[in-house]
Amino acid sequence: APDSGAQPLSKKAQKKLAKAAYIAERKKERRAAEKERRKEKKRLLAEKRAAGELDPEEEAELQKRKRQRTDKGPRTFFNARVVVDLGFDEMMTENEVKSLTSQLAYTYSANRKAEHPFSSLLFTSLNGRTLERMDATNNAAYKRWVGAEWWTEGYERLWANTEDAQRQGDDADGSRERVEDGHDDAAGALRSSKAKGPARAAQDTVVYLTADADDELTELKEGDTYIIGGIVDHNRYKNLCLNKSKEHNIRSARLPIGTYLSELRTRKVLTVNQTFEILLKWVETRDWEQALYSVIPKRKFNTEGRRR
Fold this sequence. Notes:
Keywords: Methyltransferase, S-adenosyl-L-methionine, Transferase. Residues 62-303 form the SAM-dependent MTase TRM10-type domain. Helices cover 44% and strands 10% of the residues. The chain has helices at 11-50, 56-70, 94-113, 128-136, 162-167, 186-195, 240-247, 257-260, 272-285, 288-295; strands at 78-85, 118-124, 148-150, 206-209, 225-229, 251-253.
């Protein structure tokens, strides 16, 4: 008897799958072609340089590349942890889950490129469609993110059983860890984290960042842990992250947008990566106004708003 459990795809669904496969294949072809063009350009420049035939513009381009490689210098880690709480999977639509996973990639990329990255980046409550999409994206590339830690459990595991860990001689407050292998080795941060076991933090050092909090964040402190709510909801849910902070008896705070950007007339809800990039910029500049202006999209300063 034929298997009646599996329903055949509709023509529309088949076309959608075929289109997605075609786009993915074309993207791979474009990337390969671009890589070949860069290699060829590099080869031609090397040949011209060996022959002493470089023009001033080409010589300047080579010098610029050389400076970019040598001027970066060692990275100095800011010894605090940022947690992205992914415990909202069932509250989002498919498109919102898709948007969230992109934001997670931007967040990781921002930390990797920063001159003063956070020493610990932790993603908690990874489950459901968010997990499925992360597994399906670029052959589960997130598992190879250097310096990032992923939990299926919630962030409250940070302070669970810390007394037992202390009795065993472990560092109960993992958020105060220092990178052991120097300042310029992000891979060392990951090796250090794995060697010391799961991240830990004292409950009184944890702060949930939410626009609904009464208290305003004045500074970031090394040794503390800052939680960002990993949800895309277009402001449907009120006090969601604030209520979680109260439930787990941890502090909450909001970014000082109202203090430094009084002309911002639109809602003060930011994406995960925007919030993270503001924190990174503050670490770099120690200036909230500069950090906020450099990250918040300029369209949010449109006082006229969109009219229908």
